[in-house]
Amino acid sequence: MHLAWGFSILLLSQSLVAQESCLYGDPKSRQIIKQVSSKDPIYLRYTEFKKSSIEQTLARFGVHNCENCDLSPAPPSGMLQTLKKWASEIGGFGHSSSKNPRNERNYSGLLFKPECVDAAMRIQTGNPKNGKICNSKSQVLTVQQPCYDNELAELFEYTTASAFKCYESVLRDLELPSQLINPSLMFLKFTNEGGFKNHFAGPEGVGMGQITSHVIADMTLQNRGRFILEAVSRSENEFCQGFNEIAKADLEKTPVLFSSGESGTFCPWISPSQGLQRNLLYSLGYLVNVWKNDLSSKIAEIEKIAATPEEKLALARLSSFILLRAYGPNGGKAARDLLSLLKNHAQNKKNINPIQTYEVSLRRNIDLPSEKGRQLASRAVMIPADLTRYLLNTLQKTEDLISVVPQDDLRKHIREKGISACLN
């Protein structure tokens, strides 16, 4: 065998071993991976995305055509076996390379850098005692350390990107601001709630977005968030396929959580296919719901007080932070109270601009995830800690992320640019 080919196969085999290990959990506990539905429409789109990604990776190693390679949608985690099969059938790659194919990942179609999602999954968030899976009879079983490997992480990442793209289209249809869903802040939220994992389920919340019964009820009420589910169900955008089927089903029969204390109601929210999609549908939709029904009028009142363009820009940025606060304890009420206090401060300002001061202090918790950032936040406009604690804890996940990102260049980039360095 040609030396260059042998070296390349060695690199590939090392890459494949790495892919078989877990970012989180026990390698022997692969229940979640096995539950991915190969017939799910989003999974089928993912396999097409993965096919393109693998072809581009092979092209970098000199393989441009592979007549014997099976490019049909593979079963869950089957892409890894496909790569192994290709490596054995081809007998090697045309050119050696010092690069590992694992690092030659195709970012096209993904919202977040894969390395950042991998790192978020490594962060120990969520209570292991709340780990749950459902069997084929919708019975809930406890599982403390299920394996999340690289491929499952990428499928979750692709599903998340699809949800964002779906909502971009829905917001246009509803003529609502596209900036309502802030990718950087949502990345931190998903990192804070469960580290991009979907199996945590308990009284405090369920799944990747830690959805609560209050969120579900609010999203399905006629005068609250039901219009969002209706808009998703009508959407013909390709990225809404899968999500719109769930929306249609939930409009016909409202999903429940903790019905009569039965944990079996976890199942529609924690499966790696429709459960994850339903979680994302409600997590992102709840932002739109709260903004339209609870916050937009109060923000408009503060806009009248903001006299300068700088103040108006700061308020627009601040709105994203306050909207994120609606996810914490007391939800929308806490976000409304936060806006009311900010309005009072703005009306009574003397030598300080409370809108800009508070916005800058929060933003620096992302841009400067350090002791300096926390000190700036603590000296911000005096607002009760119970209204800001959840928000600041979420923003400071940037620092936790830096501690587990293995790539020196990415870690440095996050320190310099903040969490936006994780966006594609």
Kindly provide the radius of gyration, computed on alpha-carbon positions and rounded to a whole number of angstroms: 23 Å
The helix tally amounts to: 19
Low-confidence stretches: 1-19, 73-77, 86-106, 368-381
Write down the secondary-structure element order.
HEHHHHEEEHHEEHHHHHHHHHHHH
- What is the overall silhouette? globular
How far apart lie the N and C ends? 39 Å
The count of strands amounts to 6
Q: Helix fraction? A: 55-70%
Quote the average pLDDT: 77
- Main β-sheet, spatial strand arrangement: 1-4
Query: What number of structural domains do the residues give?
Result: 1
Approximate strand percentage: under 5%
Q: Biggest β-sheet: count, sense, barrel?
A: 2 strands, antiparallel
Report what the structure shows.
The protein has helices at residues 3-20, 31-34, 41-60, 78-90, 114-122, 150-174, 183-194, 213-220, 226-234, 243-252, 267-270, 274-305, 309-325, 331-347, 354-367, 371-378, 385-395, 397-404, 408-417; strands at residues 22-24, 132-134, 140-142, 148-149, 201-202, 205-206. It has 424 residues and is mostly helical. It has one domain (3-91, 99-422). The strands form 3 sheets. The chain has a two-stranded antiparallel sheet with strand order 1-4. Strands 2-3 form a two-stranded antiparallel sheet. A hairpin with a 5-residue loop joins strand 2 (132-134) and strand 3. Helix 1 runs antiparallel to helix 4, helix 9 crosses helix 10 and helix 12 (274-305) packs antiparallel against helix 13 (309-325). The longest helix is centred in the last third of the chain and has 32 residues, at 274-305. The chain is globular, with a radius of gyration of 23 Å.
